[in-house]
Amino acid sequence: MLPEIDFERIGQRVKQARIDKGYTQAELGEVIGCSNNHMSHIETGQTKVSLSLLLKLAYALDMDLNFFLMDTPYVEKDRMIDSEIANKLSQCSPSTLLSVNKIIDILLEQQEREKDSISY
């Protein structure tokens, strides 16, 4: 079974990108061809945004499609590493980076143990 898509998180990212670009819901809706009411429902996750509309949003907001998929299992792994995680790590102090590195080691060990237990 495929993992579910969190449309609420996608909506939050749409809202973030819209605000960053200085659009109101009505203005962005006009650009992509939908009502501001529909934009509101997308941003709150009350409606499942279609792929075609998500592509229009990405184009209108000058964002990579993966930005909107960041909190889903469908994001490109490299995109998550390159933008989201790298951005957060760049804000860390050297001591915090050392802690993060240790945490990643622990998580990788746990992942390996889970993989080994599944293969039996």
UniProtKB/TrEMBL annotation:
Domain HTH cro/C1-type intervals: 14-68
Keywords: DNA-binding
Annotated Gene3D superfamilies: lambda repressor-like DNA-binding domains
Gene Ontology MF: a single term: DNA binding
GO CC terms: cytosol
Record-linked Pfam families: HTH_3 (PF01381)
Superkingdom per UniProt: Bacteria
The name this protein goes by in its record: XRE family transcriptional regulator
Species this protein is from: Anaerobutyricum hallii
